[in-house]
């Protein structure tokens, strides 16, 4: 079977709309039908929401559906599932795992979170201490995770845990799918500088995970996690946005509508950041074109680096542009939002929220190392723990 071209995808999309009119079809029912038609992510295999078509043709489907007023799957709410869990399950999951998890994930019926970082293993993620011990056909997991976005609304989590402390840290890790409703899973809010508790800490106490929910071979979880991490950085730093989308949009709008705030210095800084934001946007387009040929590479780390730096510089300029108004903050109410919103609310929120951009999804320091070693080909930093068993490392 040959992959469909753009014209065939338009025909298939119109057939979907005719059989399931958005005006009279429930949102979830429409999304399920779209998945079954292979129009969810067209580059995925047939039967798993796709048609084995080029990734570059997804906008053809999206444009037809948007023009017809069809519902989307609220990608900001389920971004971790779409951007991190799904490509990992596709790459390393069994046929049963793919059939079980991909459809409700894409349709937004099940929210996912990521149980990777720990209090003592953030930048050095491979040093993680959460243990998974085999007990027959199950694994018993004990440990603590931190900075877990959306854990309070998630049904499933992608989890890495140490299964062998007697080998070097990168080799003794395995990768699991954890049911967040299981006994022993406790989620506690972490209130941020914004006032919200978007993040959480998660305590795992005697959590039993069937071996059937392991992704990849035992002890090769770090390899599986690299797929997750590379996709995560692309999903954070390389998302498709229009010109003046993202953080630069509100600043440019304020500049146009409030001429009394302008100064020559602010003008020069805004022009510089506008150009850099546009360069980053176009670079993201190039990166997505490269994805057509395969999985994300280290280039996504460069995009995520640029995303963090630009967001922080642009939001700082916005607060300065607004003068006294920039010191105001709309609402410190403690809330636990259902989605991550980098640009929402007011200028004060954007300024404070952007501080986390250089930490989440890989710290900027770690990403600089990745770009230096894997993109520029510079010598790797010396490591004195490469051949030392995890249990013998100082902590």
Going across the major beta sheet, what is the strand order? 1-4-5-8
Count of helical stretches: 11
**Distance, first to last CA:** 55 Å
Largest beta-sheet details? 4 strands, mixed
Q: Structural class of the helices, strands and pairings?
A: alpha+beta
The counted number of beta strands is 8
Written overview of the protein:
- The model has no long low-confidence stretch (mean pLDDT 92).
- Helices cover 40% and strands 13% of the residues.
- It contains eleven helices and eight strands.
- β6 and β7 (199-210) form a beta hairpin.
- The strands form two sheets. A four-stranded mixed sheet has the order 1-4-5-8.
- It is α+β, with helices and mostly antiparallel strands and 395 residues long.
- The longest helix has 28 residues, at 264-291.
- The N and C termini lie far apart (55 Å).
Layout of secondary structure:
Blueprint (H helix, E strand, L loop, with lengths): L5 H14 L7 H10 L21 H10 L11 H14 L2 H12 L5 E4 L15 E5 L2 E8 L10 E7 L10 E7 L5 E6 L8 E12 L3 E2 L5 H17 L10 H10 L6 H28 L7 H24 L24 H7 L10 H12 L20
Parallel strand pairs: 1-4
Antiparallel strand pairs: 2-3, 3-7, 4-5, 5-8, 6-7
Provide a compact summary of the structure.
With 395 residues, the protein is α+β, with helices and mostly antiparallel strands. Helix content is 40%, strand content 13%.
Key phrases:
8 strands; 4-stranded antiparallel β-sheet; alpha+beta; 395 residues
